[in-house]
Write a structure and sequence with these properties.
alpha/beta; Rossmann fold; two-stranded parallel sheet; 18% strand; binds NADP nicotinamide-adenine-dinucleotide phosphate
């Protein structure tokens, strides 16, 4: 019988999609997170906190492959350290990790950059932990998911005037396509750092917000602002994009049409 595949963060946006795809393909799957999924969730769940270590041994019991999707704005390096130590003890033979485009190219050194863009540094830290763990691994860097782009646009639309960093562009991607790729990686031999997965189109941030406002039937004033610091400069130069790897198929407009009623315009 094949061993159980553990999906950390299997209750989150991406992890849910990974877990259901693996289950539908006939694999034994367990998901782990701090909070139990809502009623009706039909995949084995183990409560596990990768900040404290609570539940991690139980989550890894009988597991040979881990798809590590648990993540937060901060501390992903420490989560990875805790996970790989336990995974080594448990005999895991393949660790699949999701990182972000820009983890290696956006410099995060000043106090301001750490506060505003520390996420990229913590993903880089986690990448290094995974690569140095001694466990065979596959790491994929993806661009921002449509869901996060929508969440950000919705939050900004609560403001009467929306500050928009000048020169920022994004290349959002479908989380379902990222999940497909992680499943493919999990079911194959460890491949190390694999080519990025990025959305089909790059958009100035103001266009993403405008298209959301148009779809939601809202009008707001957009105020261009200059973001200081080296991390913002790198983003203006496209360090968060992967234009050569624009292999995602679904577009932001298609996603908006599904998720937000109203007319979509760019
Ligand atoms: N969203 C994006 O645009 C994007 C782009 C590229 C890469 N990624 C990466 O993809 C991964 C998944 O992103 P997502 O958007 O699906 O995130 P999400 O929806 O916020 O889900 C995060 C998951 O991690 C779990 N988690 C958070 N802190 C944890 C902890 N201390 N211990 C155990 N589990 C914990 C959460 O469950 P509990 O809160 O219940 O613990 C949840 O299941 C992250 O690593 C993220 O960095 C995301």
């Amino acid at each position: 019988m094949s061993s159980t595949i553990l999906v950390t963060g299997g209750t989150g946006t991406l992890g849910r999609l990974v877990a259901s795809r693996l289950r539908d393909a006939g694999h034994a799957v367990r998901v782990a997170g701090r909070h139990a999924p809502p009623p009706g969730h039909d995949i084995d769940f183990v409560q596990c906190d990768l900040d404290t270590g609570d539940g991690v041994e139980a989550a890894l019991s009988g597991v040979r492959t881990v798809v590590h999707c648990a993540g937060a704005q901060k501390g992903d390096g420490d989560k990875a350290r805790l996970l790989v130590a336990a995974a080594s003890r448990a005999g895991v033979t393949h660790l699949v990790f999701i990182s972000v485009v820009g983890a290696d190219t956006i410099p995060v050194r000043s106090r301001f950059d750490r506060a505003a863009f520390g996420y990229f540094a913590s993903k880089r830290d986690a990448e290094d932990v995974v690569a140095g763990s001694g466990i065979p691994f596959s790491t994929l860097r993806a661009t921002q998911f449509f869901e996060l782009t929508l969440l950000t646009a919705r939050a900004m639309a609560k403001l009467p005037v929306i500050p928009v960093p000048k020169g920022f562009r994004f290349q959002p991607v479908d989380a379902g396509e990222v999940a497909d790729r992680l499943v493919e990686l999990a079911l194959n031999e460890p491949a190390g750092l694999v080519p990025d997965l990025a959305g089909p189109l790059c958009y100035p941030m103001r266009d993403l917000i405008r298209s959301y406002l148009s779809a939601a039937g809202q009008r707001r004033l957009l105020l261009p602002v200059h973001m200081p610091g080296k991390a913002a400069k790198a983003i203006r130069e496209g360090a968060n994009l992967s234009e050569d790897m624009a292999v995602g198929r679904k577009t932001w407009e298609e996603f908006l049409t599904e998720r937000v009623p109203g007319v979509v315009g760019r």
